[in-house]
What does this fold into?
Amino acid sequence: MNRSLAERLYDDFISQNRYMYLVRGLGNTVLITVFALLIGVLIGVIIALVRVNYQQSKKKRIPLRIANLLCGLYLTVIRGTPMVVQLMIMYFVIWASGAPIMIAIVSFGLNSAAYVAEVIRSGIQSVDRGQTEAGRSLGLSSRQTMLHIILPQAFKNVAPAIFNEFIVLLKETSVAGYVGIQDLTKGGDIIRSITYDAFPPLIAVAIIYLIIVICLTQILHVIEGRLAKSDLR
Amino acid sequence: MISVKNLYKTFHNASGSVEVLKGINCEIGKGEKVVIVGPSGSGKSTLLRCMNLLEEPTKGEILFEGQTINAPGVNIDQIRAQMGMVFQHFNLFPHLTVLKNITLSPVLVKHDSPQEAEENAMKLLKRIGLEDKAGSYPNQLSGGQKQRIAIVRSLAMKPKVMLFDEPTSALDPEMVGEVLEVMKELASDGMTMAVVTHEMNFAREVANRVLFVDDGQILEENEPEAFFSQPQHPRTQDFLSKLLK
It folds into this structure.
C-alpha cells in the first residue's frame, strides 16, 4: 500500500471516470436541496399563516383551532426528531414504493417547512401593525392585505434567514445515503469502498461542500447588504 | 353620515382591563368638519378608530349612512372603502412606489383598470405638487411628503368621509404647515372630516364643531368660536389654558 499521493488520486478520481460519482452525487444533492426548499417555503408559509391567523384573531373558530393544533403538533414532531429518522421512516414505512429521490425531496421539504414556518412567522410579526391597519382602512380584505402588503415585506425581512436555511439544508442532505441515494457524500463513500482509500475522496467531498457553502455565504452577504441599503426606515 | 351611539370600549391586557370609552354619543353630518381634541390617553384616537372599526366597540353602535356597521354580517371592507383614514405615522407601504401606494386599493377593491387608477393618482399627485415623486419609494421622502401622499392615497378611493388620527403629531414642525394646507383645501372642497389633532389653530379655522374628550367621555361640544373663547367645562378650561399658554 505504499503508493504515492499522485497514484492514489489517479485511482480515486481519474481511473474509470470515478470522479463522476462526485459529479452525479453533487447533482443529486443540489436537486434535493433546491426542490426541498421550494416545498419547505410553500408549506412553511401555509403553517405560518395558520399560526399568525390564530394568534391575531379574536374569535377563534373551530376549524382555525384545529388547523393551529395540527400545525403545532407538526412543528413539535418534526423539530423534535432527527432528520435521518424522518427520512428512514418515509422511505421504509410511509412511502416504500416511491422513487428514492422523490422520497428524499419530500422528506427534506417537510422537515425544512417546520423551520421555514417559524422564520416566516417571525417575518410576518415583524411588519408594523400600522401596515395592516392602513391596508384594511383602504378597504382591502384581510387576505388582500396579507398578500399584497404584509407578505412582501415579511419575505424581505426574512430573506437572509431563508437563504441561510438553504445553506443548512444543503449540508443536511448528506444523510440521503441512508436510503440508498447517491448524493455527494455517498459518492465519495462509494469511491472509498471501491479503492479502499478513504482520505482523498472524503476530503474532496468536504472541500466541495465547503466551497459551495462559502459561495452561498458570500451571496447571502450581498443580499443582506442590498436589503440594508434599501431599508432606511 | 356617521353616528356614534352609546359607545363603550374596553381594552384587555396582561395587567387587567382599561375602559377607554365610556358612553360616547356623537354625530358627524355630511360636509361637516369635526375636530376632536383632548389630553393624551383620553380616548379620542380610539373613538376615531372605532368609526371604521379598526377597533371593535365593546358596546354601542356605529352607523354609517344609517347602516349599523358593527353588526354581524356587515361587509366592513365595503364600508371602509368609503371612509378614508390618515394615520399619525403615515403607514405608507415601504415596498411599493408612491404611485403603487395610491393605485393599490382602487385596483384591488374598486376594480379600476390600472391605467384609470394611474391617471387618477397622477392627478392627485399634481394637486399636492408631488407628481415628480410618483416613482420614488416612501423612504426617500420627507415626513411632510409622506403624509400628503398618505392623504392622497385615501382620496384615490373617493371616500365620503376622511378620518384623521393626529396627522401632524409625528412631523417636524416645519412640515406641519404643508400637511395642514392639504387638509384645509380638502375641507373647502366640502369633504366630510373627523380630525383628532392638537393643532388648535386648525380647529379654530376649519372646524364646524369641536369635541372635547376626556376620560372616555365627550365633556364639551361647541362651535370653535365659542369653544375656544368661552369653554364651559372646568376640564376644558384647564386643558385649553395649558395648551394656549
Summary: The mean pLDDT of chain B is 95. The beta strands of chain B are 2-13, 16-28, 33-37, 59-64, 67-68, 83-86, 161-165, 192-196, 209-214, 217-222.
